[in-house]
């Protein structure tokens, strides 16, 4: 027989480990690391074992970010009655997140020994940014900066770091090639803010979408989506993405999240997983577009 839930034994809800882990967001790490590995590989050969290690490190870093995401909620939870189980769950997730960071740092140190101090600085920036996502006194999520800084930390920095880890050179051209996928990484976080807009506003969380308002948040979603796809012909013109047309079929994955943007709050839960699938398909086709001149010419 199931235990009867009482006020003294609340459902952990979003603080349950499986939900706090947010596995639907793992495409962020997989796609960004894979794009970086391909960009590094286009500059030279890539060892398969090293590539797999980069992917594992990226997923660990993403898991760590997800697990510490709710740490800033503790202050609010302390003001609620019968919330000790929730606080304990958040603290457990936070410690698990720190363990993920530690394991990711160990993998990073392996590549520091191979690539030198330049890669070390990329690792330090990545870890510092990940910890600052929700941990005080930085807590840039609550400052409305999450969508902006995730573009750099989980997008540009993750892609460029993966390329450098396998021996690629950090060039201006490579940085330009990171931008379209990085924009969709920001779009994924924005979709999460749009999905939770009403609850975040009620709880006093000052995310970017709460600060802008839902309508402007939706407009920003469309702007980022258009910007990501608008960059494809620019990169094609610059000779940095000769197979750019391969990415266009991923637009089909945008129909569902775009429809959900107009849905009422209670029906908006699939918005973030749908945006994650868009990112995954876009990223995989982007990889094909990078390789297309060699393997799949149009």
From TrEMBL:
Gene Ontology terms: cellular component: membrane
Pathway(s): Quinol/quinone metabolism; menaquinone biosynthesis
Gene Ontology MF, one: prenyltransferase activity
Gene Ontology BP terms: menaquinone biosynthetic process; vitamin K biosynthetic process
Membrane topology: Multi-pass membrane protein
Domain of life: Bacteria
Subcellular location(s) of the protein: Membrane
Regions crossing the membrane: 24-42, 48-68, 89-113, 119-138, 145-166, 172-191, 212-229, 235-255, 276-296
The keyword Membrane belongs to this UniProt entry's keyword annotation: yes
Keywords on record: Cell membrane, Membrane, Menaquinone biosynthesis, Transferase, Transmembrane, Transmembrane helix
Pfam families with a match to the protein in the record: UbiA
Record-given protein name: Prenyltransferase
Source organism (scientific name): Marinobacterium marinum
